[in-house]
Specification:
448 residues; Outer membrane efflux proteins (OEP); 4-stranded antiparallel sheet; two-stranded antiparallel ribbon; 10 helices; elongated
């Protein structure tokens, strides 16, 4: 009976203290978890975002217009010059300038013809320009696609971190409540309650930064999709880490076949070589032909006549000019070949750097996924149980929670970094990077 009275007294004391507890109102004022705004927007996947960007991105549209301009130009490069028409009046009397019957009147139609092979070479040079424009368009498409992937995974990372934030808020509230109850019965000092409250409040600071990152990533992704930055946007997807990444030699070989910038540089080199051939063709003479009708003065024996005229250029007499044109074209070929070699080395360097970053990011993802996250979560769980049963103090609990939070955030950043480095690797190669096997889904599907 005495034990029952003591228990009832302790319970009434706890309830009385809790009624006057100033921290109860503070706990109620703190949010339990991140409040996700409801939206009627259908979430889009990564491949859908890339397709939208390839169709609507303004920079891609500009590059496509350049291709259209180059294609429209080709039909005119191999065409003949405009025909000409001429009138000539001879021996018009000064005393009777209106008397054309006393003059010789000539009407002529003429056409010039470039030397054999020149028109075909001009068309070939214009065709090379189309190849350059198409390669630049493909490079822009690859660039935009990589940027879309980076922004997409930034937004997905933020969604993962917000989900972890929600979980940690629940744990922090549990610790705050436990510390408050222990303080109310005199088991722990007031400092434990204050420290738990500070830890919960710090999560609100994290929430502000996470929402800022989400808004910035959403604005970037909207811009890449050709939309207004403030357009409502939801994404859905998951991280998939491959089991193995191709070797450097394989990526170099793939880049030589696929990298748009290398293809554009090779096309400009070929264009310069065709211009050398065209410069040599300047030694081939050009021709012109004219045919005309002549009306002789009144009283002439043959008043109606016709005239045929032909001319030919003599380029051999202007050798200095044409040799200079050939030398200039040959120098351009050497310059563009050097540019191609320099670009190839730069591409190989970019591939190696991107490969090193991707492999390092994958190692970090594996480390967090297989070791650090399970260890930190197990430690946090055991610490929560120990604190609730008076087996440890608030400092160990808060330290364990902070460690778990840091590990989770680092894990999702490593995932996003890996995906972004893979996007950079594909950008440096100029084609999708083939991967062997699949290590599995690195995180559950997230909608943001």
């Amino acid at each position: 009976m005495k034990a029952i009275l003591i228990c009832l007294f302790c319970l009434s004391s706890v309830l009385a203290v809790a009624a006057d507890d100033p921290y109860q109102s503070a706990l109620a004022a703190l949010p339990q978890e991140h409040s996700h705004a409801s939206s009627n927007v259908t979430p889009i996947k990564l491949d859908e975002a890339e397709q939208i960007a390839l169709q609507a991105n303004p920079e891609i549209r500009v590059a496509a217009r350049k291709v259209a301009i180059a294609e429209a130009h080709i039909s005119g490069t191999g065409a003949l010059d405009d025909p000409s028409v001429m009138y000539r009046g001879w021996q018009v009397p000064l005393t009777k300038p209106w008397d054309y019957n006393a003059a010789m009147n000539m009407f002529m139609v003429g056409q010039s013809f470039p030397g054999p092979g020149k028109r075909a070479l001009r068309s070939q040079v214009a065709t090379d320009a189309i190849s350059v424009a198409k390669a630049e368009l493909e490079a822009k498409r690859r660039e935009v696609s990589a940027a879309v992937r980076k922004a997409f995974y930034d937004l997905l990372r933020t969604a993962d971190e917000l989900r972890v934030h929600d979980e940690q808020v629940g744990i922090a509230r549990q610790a705050f409540e436990a510390a408050r109850i222990k303080y109310s019965v005199g088991k722990v000092p007031q400092q434990d309650v204050l420290k738990a409250q500070v830890a919960l409040t710090k999560l609100i600071e994290h929430l502000v930064m996470l929402e800022q990152d989400a808004d910035l990533s959403r604005a970037t992704l909207n811009t890449l999709l050709g939309r207004s930055p403030d357009t409502p946007l939801e994404i859905t997807g998951q991280h998939v880490v491959p089991a193995q990444i191709p070797t450097l030699a394989e990526l170099k070989q793939l880049a030589l076949q696929s990298r748009p910038e290398l293809m554009a540089s090779a096309a400009t080199t070929k264009q310069a070589q065709d211009e050398v051939a065209l410069a040599r063709k300047q030694y081939t003479p050009d021709f012109s032909a004219n045919i005309g009708y002549m009306l002789m003065p009144s009283g002439s024996q043959f008043r109606n006549n016709y005239m045929v005229e032909g001319s030919m250029t003599l380029p051999w007499l202007n050798r200095r000019k044409h040799e200079a044109e050939i030398s200039e074209a040959q120098a351009t070929v050497a310059e563009r070949q050097s540019e191609f070699d320099a670009m190839r080395l730069a591409v190989f360097q970019q591939i190696q750097e991107a490969l090193v970053r991707a492999k390092s990011a994958k190692r970090l993802v594996d480390l967090y996924q297989n070791s650090l996250r399970p260890q930190s979560e197990a430690t946090l769980h055991s610490t929560v149980v120990a604190y609730e049963n008076d087996g440890t103090d608030i400092l160990n609990l808060l330290d364990s929670q902070n460690t778990t939070l840091d590990v989770d955030y680092a894990y999702f950043r490593a995932l996003a970094d890996f995906e972004q480095h893979m996007a950079e690797l594909e950008l440096t190669v100029g084609a999708p990077v083939p991967t062997s096997g699949q290590a599995g889904t690195a995180s559950a599907e997230v909608t943001r």
